[in-house]
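Reviewer 2 asked us to include a model.

Predict the structure of this chain.
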Amino acid sequence: MSVSMLKMWISFAGMILLMLAIGLILLSRYKLKGWLARIVSVLAYLSLIIGGLIIIYIVFSGPTG
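Predicted model (structure tokens):
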């Protein structure tokens, strides 16, 4: 597998984590209450941070030759 193909799959994982974070944040704010909402919210913000770091890495690592 080439480096550019590997970067593509890693960026897909980052985008999936960002979309998961959106869904979990909406779920925890509008549908859940109490401690379950807090747990889901923590998972959402963790996936948001990890997904953002992945995308930042892909963008700043530059093009592949």
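Residues 3-30 form the longest helix (28 residues). DSSP finds two helices and no strands in the chain. We have added this to the supplementary material.
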